[in-house]
Design goal:
Number of strands: 14
Shape: globular
Largest sheet: 10 strands, mixed
Distance between the termini: 7 Å
CATH superfamily of the largest domain: Periplasmic binding protein-like II
Number of helices: 18
Low-confidence stretches: 1-46
Strand content: 15-25%
Mean pLDDT: 88
CATH architecture of the largest domain: 3-Layer(aba) Sandwich
Number of domains: 2
CATH topology of the largest domain: D-Maltodextrin-Binding Protein, domain 2
CATH class of the largest domain: Alpha Beta
Oligomer: single chain
Amino acid sequence: MTDGTLWNRRVADRRMDRRRLLGAAGGMGAGVGLSLKFGKRGSAQGTPLPAIAAALTEWGFNATETNPLAFARLQAFLAAFPDVTIEISPESDVQRILTAAVSDTLPDLLWLGREVMNSYISRGEILRPIDDLVERDGYDMSRFYPSAVQEATSGDQLYGIPGGMDVVVIWANTDALAEAGITDPSQLNTADWNQLTEIGTQLTRRTGDTVERWGFDSKIQDGQFYTWALANGASLLGGDDGLQPNFNSPEVADLLEKARASYESQGGFQSYEAFRSTWQNDEQFARGQVAITAYQNWLGNINAVTTPDLNFAVLPIRPQSDPAGIAAVSGGAAWCITANSQNVDAAWEFIKFMHSDETWMTGARAVRAARDAAGAPYLPSLTGVQAVDQRQIDELYTPISPQFDNAVQVFPQVLAASTTRALAPSPFAQQLDQIVFQTGVLPSLRGERPVQEALDAAQTEAESALQGF
């Protein structure tokens, strides 16, 4: 049997980089536990609010003042519901949740990454389905991107309301592209690994053994693996129930062969890892240390703060089978009510309020104010609510430059075409994620094993682990 320790550490490291940098720009920030109670009863939503008195508890949400998108929304909730207090703890690791489930001490609410929700749903005693609440109140789920709703659903039951989105796209330094003779970014075919590798090799710069710029970083060794797998036509789960690991398929092997050859052509994966260890705060693209990279949309905030004059283009990743299509895998979290909550109605009102259009816009205005105060450009957040994402562009976004203006328009389009992460439907998503990366992907890229051999080993390990469960 495996556990999710390494997987959670790897994901946590990536998320900490994100929080640290966006916090500097007035976005996400580190947090500590808090209990807040504000204001006088009233409705910022324009509709009557029910009279509720409760002491809610929540784990996993960062609502400190360094995160104005969250903090302003939380303040608005507490002002609208003065008889509700909420104690928020940003810590919600797997072991803490499982221990609390056994001891019947779970909080009322959990803020969970949607990619791991099925790991908790499958246990039965952790999360409460919320279909009855949605139906009772006529809550409109069509407001959200379909992929986010699907990822928060297990079987035919809904277990969470999506909050926040991210999506992977190609970021290309257009000044670097010009060095390779590409003056129009649309000439970059993101479905063609051969072209990406060829250009990346041309753009890699070294002085002796010292790498100064990496050409094309697919970041396939990170969560971007799932987007590239989708683009390559690979299905990582299969079988009669659609939940069995399918790690050693020809499509996955083909993808890793391409990725390995791409890194080798630019100097080898070990050289890349050594160079990567010198990067700080995810600023490698903004600082010109990488010419082309696959990255989440929030890289825009890093660019805006670090090098706002950077010339770049944002391009969707295209499917190999359809170069005119879009291959996109969305990420994000969801609010969930725990199975043992004694404050279900209050928890549900909290979720609804925090995800209303007006509450999202309250948070967005707070972010805009914080960016203005810091003298930093404002970029809209991806909330998961399609109408709000557009309202931020229409009402709050001030054009910065053609490259940023284009990026802001591209992100919602890519999200609209996105699908769920490949392993998310599995109750063992965390364990399978760890296996496919630690046994399959990384040994392949590092040349420790032939690609097919590494994937066969990952498949065997995954099957054995599931039998153990």
